[in-house]
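Hello forum,

I keep getting stuck at the same step: I have a sequence, I want structure tokens, and every attempt I make locally crashes halfway through. Rather than fight my setup again tonight, could one of you with a working pipeline run this one for me? It's a single chain of 147 residues.
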Amino acid sequence: MFRLETEVDRGRRDLLRSRLRDTNTAASPILRRLRGTPGERELPLHVWALDDADDLAAGLVGHTWTTWLHVTYLWVDERHRGTGLGSHLLAQAEHIAREERGCGSSRLETWDFQAPGFYKKQGYEVVCVIPDYPPGITEYTLTKRLS
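Reply #2:
Ran it on my machine without issues. Output:
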């Protein structure tokens, strides 16, 4: 017999993550080889654009892991959209990921009303489409080879 609980428990979350990692490592020779190497760690990658008053004009937040750049957020202030600033931030993040961190690929998620067309113009390809996530919105996952 089991008792099910639904409260948020960070200690159990961390234990679960550790056990899942151990299970995955045991099941995958690739993950076993990765353990203990620098590529195993997620490293933050942030690129900021500040205007003359040092206000945030645009920014990109992501991380690198193994040989991948993951772009989590890319935002450009409305006053600066259409100027190439978003393309510049993305290119800078891709350059750092490729040249300084050895990444060969990039991935990101975006919604249909955000920027799938923008990312396609930057060389990204749609690899996954999730309709109604959330209801009425379509989410896209896109990837790009950096090398």
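The helical segments are 10-27, 29-34, 85-100, 116-121. If your local run keeps crashing, start a new thread with the error log.
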